[in-house]
């Protein structure tokens, strides 16, 4: 008899996560991102050995309390309620969004997803277009590489001097982030933000043809939702949007690697 693994979430990737895990686990899916009394009771009834939480932070409406059967908890975005429960229980925890191999593999899918998003919404070629990428982490690097090889002109804008000159060493144009809005006023350029904090004023967004914000909520805009520029697109979860099968299997790979490690201890 297989041990039970509970997967909570509504992301399209989780269907393929279930497929990948089902050969070894009895996987039960709950399409929810809210921890309420009803969900809590259902999970307690199942007594799962493994619980997999949503990618986005779980909304907690009742006491977050795991069943005593739970030995392994997979966490996407954390919150105080989850953290407090972890401290009370002697369980293995794995923050799957922080797994280094997953981060790099997912960055590849995000870059390819942005390209697909651009083709779908702009209905133009990338060749000979100008893209300014703010941030030069994993996603920024994979995007710069992909866009460059499709014939785009790529500028990297960051605060870190180390990252600026790293980008320059790979042949990209560079711009200090603090000078970007002053020096780059080419309304034909597309801005792609990967920096996970608010830094871009509404007036600055209007300097560009389009702003594609890939950073998690709340994105890079300084103003409130009522003041979102018409040329701004908050393009989240691109791997799940365009490649749910590939993205789901990537998560499953990280999960299976961790479970194998736990079993070997």
UniProtKB/TrEMBL annotation:
Tell me which domain of life the UniProt entry assigns to the organism this sequence originates from: Bacteria
Q: Note the InterPro entries from the entry.
A: D-isomer_DH_NAD-bd (IPR006140), NAD(P)-bd_dom_sf (IPR036291)
User: What's a Gene Ontology MF term here?
Assistant: NAD binding
Residue ranges of domain D-isomer specific 2-hydroxyacid dehydrogenase NAD-binding in the record: 122-183
A matching Pfam family? 2-Hacid_dh_C
Q: What is this protein called?
A: Dipicolinate synthase subunit A
Q: What is the lineage of its organism?
A: Bacteria, Bacillati, Bacillota, Bacilli, Bacillales
